[in-house]
Amino acid sequence: MNGFSLHSTLREDCHILGTWHDIWVLLHRDAHVRWFILVPETNLTEWHELPEETRQKLALLTQRLSSCLKTEQHCDKINLGLIGNMVPQLHMHVIGRWKSDPYWPGVVWGKSQSGKKYTEEQVNAFQESIKTYLEQ
Predict the structure, then answer these.
(1) Band (62; pLDDT cuts 50, 70, 90)
(2) What is the pLDDT of residues 88-113, one digit of tens each?
(3) Which of 15, 23, 33, 34 has its CA 20 to 30 A from that of 120?
(4) Global pTM value
């Protein structure tokens, strides 16, 4: 999209895994949980403002990544969020949680612990593991 750029906070906090139908797929750097962030290429800031086609694509991608987290990562729970108070750019959080993660059962927002980061090999493995789900 002309004029679209990824918000600096998202760029700093995440690994860019790629794009799928004009939606950026990011992996949050906090490896305590499996935390994808999906960013449609738009300057709109609210879910209800998105064109129907974009909402459908975002919902489908959310469903597919949620399925990947349950099947591949064996997460106990999938949390979804569209908040945008700190980062105004429209983005969807898809977070795989385990009952053993350090934030359970609370929320992950603002709780990120330092120290556990992904290696380059792990990021590459995530890129490969989600391909199957994105190509369905």
Answers:
(1) very high
(2) 999 999 999 999 999 999 999 877 66
(3) 23
(4) 0.93
